[in-house]
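A.,

Following up on our hallway conversation. Structure tokens first:
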């Protein structure tokens, strides 16, 4: 709330407008890698529709609705998220 209060009305309205007009970027359809699209079960409908659009445009992606979460999956279910992402991260170790 404090962060939002510090944003100008114009910036806030522009941000909301952009969110409402979300469509997957054209190059998303050509992404060859694995993609895990996560959305909280308690998330706003707009975010659920955006997640569904991302999955529709990249059929080889995995869409998962995460129970007990809204917009903060990493904060609300950190252990679940770590277990979910772990195998993918293990398969692609940091090249450093």
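Then the amino acids I'd put at each of the 96 positions:
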């Amino acid at each position: 709330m404090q962060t939002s209060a510090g944003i100008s009305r114009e910036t806030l309205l522009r941000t909301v407008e952009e969110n409402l007009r979300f469509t997957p970027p054209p190059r998303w359809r050509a992404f060859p890698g694995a993609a895990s699209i996560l959305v909280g079960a308690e998330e706003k409908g707009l975010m659920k529709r955006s997640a569904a659009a991302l999955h529709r445009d990249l059929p080889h992606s995995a869409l998962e609705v995460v129970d007990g979460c809204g917009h903060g999956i990493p904060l609300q279910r950190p252990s679940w998220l770590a277990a979910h992402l772990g195998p993918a991260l293990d398969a692609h170790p940091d090249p450093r």
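The two ends are 38 Å apart (CA to CA). Curious whether your intuition agrees with the design.

B.
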